[in-house]
Amino acid sequence: MPPLVRGQAAAELRDRPHDAQGWPSQAVRTSHGMIATDEELGSEAGVEILKRGGNAVDAAVAVAFALAVVEPAAGNIGGGGFMLIRLASGKTTFFDYREVAPGNATRDMYIGKDGKLDEEASVIGYRSVAVPGTVAGLTLALKSYGSMKLADVMAPAIHLAQNGFPISKRLAHEFEEEGSSLQRFAVSRRIFLNDGKMFQPGDTLRQPELAATLKRIARNGAAEFYGGETAHTLVDDMSRLGGLITLDDLAKYQPKVREVLRAKFDSNGHAWEVLTSPPPSSGGVAIIEAMNMLQRVPLKGWDDVDSVHMVAEVMRRVFADRAAYLADPDYANVPVAGLTDPCYANEVFATVDPQHASSSKIIKAGNPHTCGVAASNATFPETLVSLGEGPHTTHFSVVDAAGNAVASTYTLNDSYGSHATSSAGFLLNDEMDDFTTQPGVPNALFGLVQSAANAIAPGHRPLSSMTPTILLRDGKLSFVTGSPGGPTIISATLLSILNWMRLGMEPQAAINAPRFHHQWLPDRILMEGAFPESLESALNARGHATHRIGHMGLVNAVAIDPATGDRLGAADPRHDGAAVGY
Ligand code: DON
Fold it and tell me: Relative to the CA of 252, which of 98, 164, 297, 381 has its CA 20 to 30 Å away?
């Protein structure tokens, strides 16, 4: 395996036209395979596998292991995620390798004796860690649809961990920013803070413990992570340092193969199909419900107040439904058919005023059980409030020469997860915070409201917003997309889809376009800085509260040029992402 170096794709990236803010204004075009990730070295790892004859699934698994080395904030083997696959044959599948709550977890485990939520316990340290799913998910995907050996697709990651890679400006800055939390954990401090001496851009980050762990996994497969030396090391960390995960929890972990959620739309004279993420993702249901409603809305673009208003009103309603109904489908009766039924969208859409903002105090979840679907026995669950999520997560998209496509989003939840690192060299998630951690307590980070069905219980998967999605146009592969960003994942992914499918934007423009988000509660539109003040004032005049944030989401997408079949890679310029192809 030749060493991977940043900058191989640089010329291709540099030579594209750029806009006034220095963002590339055109996607990277190739005729064979294309990979878009947050980190050039991650994209390179995948392209290397494609060039060696691997298919999109081989490359996706290689990318995921490589990002676990070069993007420690979110790339992981100590977390979980989703992988949506559409093979060139038309076969689709969804791997759910979301983490689960440990067997000793309890509904009120983060609530102190004083009845108050311990603000830190679900987000920092070993007690916030849910049973990781990544290694089980990736190895299952590879075994099911890959063509290469695990050791071969893991080779780039092992190389990067063992020999190191140059620390980018961004990474050095992240270590600095996360320093106060990382330094609380001896292993994290040693690996990521250089034992307190702090890394500078250009320094080499070598991760020998991680390299050794990856080598054992490459040799022994998932059994290593869930029962071998890695499992024993992790469980030893847990028992010494206050975590709950046991060998039994690891032995019991199972990734799930789920049916892809699908919906059809006509737009611009073409028949489109959206292939997206089923529960425990809330995102696929939300996106289909929103797109059903938006079929009635003539979208003009995001400088048009009517378009932004309508999407915000639709999202307000979609998130009210998310709060009431979405949870782990293995334990809750989630009314997916009702929520994604166009007939239900009609009913909900009828409550939208095209000129005035509704109030989230008045808008409540609808009743998806009565419209065109046989009533299920699902009840309206009690609504609870959960802590939100901090950045960060990572999404990557892969298309190979044969037209196989993978959309994958995986996460440690917060940036650097729990900030605790296993002695086996990998950061651990704080995914427990995606459960509803305390009934009725206002949300700390994202104000995300969720249902009682999402309460903590052993073996349950916390509700997720991650939404890897693939679009077909007239039956052919057209767009592979997804994003990080907690609940804003849903909006960022939806907007990328609308930009491509409804507004016909060039793929890079579809990624660059300014983003906004409404999640029902808090009752306000979050808007990126790039929106003009005039648009914000026009929204305020309609009764919307607005709140500016710098950037929202990091969408790394691959589109297919319908005329030529070329792959068009569009990484998000909000980060150091890179679309690399061949
Ligand atoms: O699964 C989820 O919805 C969250 N754990 C994702 C967190 C996230 O995207 C934070 N990132 N920016």
Answer: 381
Q: In degrees, to the nearest 5, what angle opens at C-alpha 447 toward C-alphas 445 and 449? A: 135
3-state SS assignment for residue 471: strand
What is the DSSP annotation of 238-249? Answer: HHHHT----HHH
Distance CA 126, CA 272 (A): 44
CA 369 vs CA 313, 323, 411: distances in Å: 22, 16, 33
- 434 C-beta closer than 6 A to ligand 1: yes
Contacts of 561 (CB under 8 A, 6+ apart): 29, 567, 568
Ligand 1 center–CA 541 separation, angstroms: 32
Using DSSP bridges, classify how beta strands 567-570 and 28-30 pair: parallel, antiparallel or unpaired.
antiparallel
pLDDT at residue 535, rounded to an integer: 98
**pTM, entire model:** 0.96
List the catalytic residues.
Answer: 393
Tell me, using a 6 A CB cutoff, whether residue 79 lines ligand 1: no
Q: Tell me how crowded residue 354 is: count the other CB atoms within 10 A of its CB.
A: 10
Average pLDDT over residues 473-483: 98
Burial 139-163, CB ≥16 within 10 A → b, else e: bbbbeebbebebebbbbbbbbbbbe
CA of 465 to the centre of ligand 1 (A): 7
Tell me the pLDDT tens digit for each residue of 121-156: 999 999 999 999 999 999 999 999 999 999 999 999
